[in-house]
Amino acid sequence: MADAVFLSGDRVDLRPIEEDDLEFLRNRINDPRIWRAIGRSRPVNREQEQDFFENVVCDDDTVNLLIVADSTPVGTIGFNSIDWEARRAEIGYWVAPDHHKQGYGSDAAERIVAYGFDQLGLHKIAARVFEFNDASRRLLESIGFTQEGVHRDGEFIDGEFQDVYWYGLLESEWRTA
Questions:
Q1: How far apart are CA 29 and CA 94, in angstroms?
Q2: Model pTM?
Q3: CATH second-level architecture of 7-176?
């Protein structure tokens, strides 16, 4: 059901990704402004997006949600690399370029971070951002993440090596902020 809201925010709602959303996801993930920012280097076709849905979205060891503003899909957010024993996960997100600078990413990130700490019992949430993605770095810092390190020339994106900035947020930091 496309209107099954899982987490509500001030500007956006987060709901489960459904099979009907795959065309939106495939079309946006192939936009250079998105695939470059998330470190993809190859296009995604319908079959690959279906495979992503079946093997990642439907996996019990990830949380993948669609960011929706006024019933319109605008991006995705979720936790991957969840380590239940260590109680940590990595957050990942993207917002379609025509919906940038409206606070959607910040609102979605605030909601899922609260969910991670309050409902999943996480101790730490990590994030990685490429050196050219200043907007994502600002978003993370605005909700309390701290830059913890840099993997120099950590990824090869769009024809050149990029530094990868690692961020982290501990539950105790989040609760006192």
A1: 9
A2: 0.91
A3: 3-Layer(aba) Sandwich (3.40)
DSSP state, residue 42: S
pLDDT in tens, 15-59: 998 989 888 888 888 888 888 888 777 788 788 888 778 777 777
The residue type at 173: E
Residue whose structure tokens are 């769009």: 158
With residue 93 as reference, give the H or E element that holds it: strand 88-95
Tokens of 58: 């439907």
Residue in 125, 162, 145 with CA at minimum distance from that of residue 37:
162
Interior/surface letters 49-82, b for 16+ CB within 10 angstroms, e for the rest: beebbeeebeeeebbbbbbbbeeebbbbbbbeeb
User: What is the distance between the alpha carbons of residues 69 and 9, in angstroms, rounded to a whole number?
Assistant: 10
- Domain residue ranges in the chain: 7-176
Amino acid at 59: D
Interatomic CA distance for residues 38 and 29, integer angstroms: 9
